[in-house]
Amino acid sequence: MKEKIKSLAHSILPEIITIRRHLHAHPELSFEEFNTSDYIASKLTEFNIPFKQGFVKTGIVALIEGKNPSKKIIALRGDMDALPIVEKNTCLYKSQNEGVMHACGHDVHSASLLGVAKILNELKNEFEGTVKFIFQPGEEKLPGGASLMIKEGVLENPKPVSMLAQHVFPSMETGKVGFRSGMYMASTDEIYITVKGKGGHAAMPNDYNNPLLIASQLLMDLNNAFMISPSSDALLEDDSVRPPTVLAFGKIIGSGATNVIPDEVKLEGTFRTMDEIWRAEAHFKMKQIADAVAQKMGGTCDVVIKHGYPFLVNDLNVTSRARVAAEDYLGKENVETLPLRMTAEDFSFFSQQLPSCFYRLGTASLAKGITSGVHTATFDIDEDALEVGVGLMSWLTINELKA
């Protein structure tokens, strides 16, 4: 079976590259993936794979039933949305939608999942069980397409017992993959703060209370209170140390002028951590600090915290089985252990619903100069990684069905 999968992954690579390039050239933002959805549906129709369209408007669920289809059901997920980034690559398949780019590899994820579907459809008489393929919208935008698909029943009828997903990893060479059991990625919340003072003419300081100064002091106090902690394993093993935490503000708006003090300043940021009790305490603490700073400096503060994705945890058994299967498929030297990450992923909603494994697919090539990170305007992949991604996920699926 392994050699059959490797042969099929190699033979369909040109087709999967074509699919990936089409998706890359026609990116769509979160929850607006209508053309993407129709394109994926057309490919599933071409492959003669049954599916249902319209989950959260653009999501798709396909099913491939092997022999004895009710014996075991597992799910695979690929996300479809792109980011609001102007692509700077000059390749023939660069984005044709100005200001929108597949800079996080979701084109790779969807193309790979289509490749896996094609392979497993050809092999469906050689395995038992059912594979559920979830093409998911809106991974990049709260509340996350995963949470909305779950609410619409994507994990029911039939109900999978475990789930797999892969994600591009531009800091790892093509041919390698990475796994981590247990806690892997952080929760994420969006922080919106409005600092209010009193505006006026800059030359008349007795007549105004500058909200920019209040906001500046608030940023310093929040930074001191939530100093970035290193995301090391020791932090999760030592109860006396705060869990890995990041509080960072990337946007500040104070719409005054050189001689105009505005009435208010807006701050926008993100909060990441890996412990739900501390997460709730931190939300309270942020609001306390904001109120204290504003009151001390004669202003007011409105703090809105949008509760985002939970932390992502990889099931020990599913991940262990997947890693062993990956070592068998690629060789032990090509399977690495991943460190904790403070990035977030809405696959975490799935990981908290059923035993799951979220692993990383190496997509870099130093020799080809393909090294740009995700969420950058020059992100791209070594397309040889598609053969690895399609073949490995197919092999992991077969092994998980047997487990």
The CATH architecture of the largest domain can be given as 3-Layer(aba) Sandwich
Low-pLDDT ranges = 230-239
Distance between the termini: 15 Å
CATH class division of the largest domain: Alpha Beta
The number of E-state strands comes to: 16
β-sheet strand percentage:
25-35%
* Overall radius of gyration: 23 Å
- Kindly identify the CATH topology of the largest domain: Aminopeptidase
- Percent range of helical residues: 25-40%
Please tell me the total number of domains. Answer: 2
Categorize the overall geometry. Answer: elongated
In this structure, how is the largest beta sheet organized? 8 strands, mixed
CATH homologous superfamily placement of the largest domain: Zn peptidases
3D structure, described in words:
The chain has eleven helices and 16 strands. It is an alpha/beta fold and 403 residues long. The chain folds into two domains: 2-184 and 311-402, Zn peptidases (Aminopeptidase, 3-Layer(aba) Sandwich), CATH 3.40.630.10; 187-307, 2-Layer Sandwich (Alpha-Beta Plaits). The radius of gyration is 23 Å and the shape is elongated.
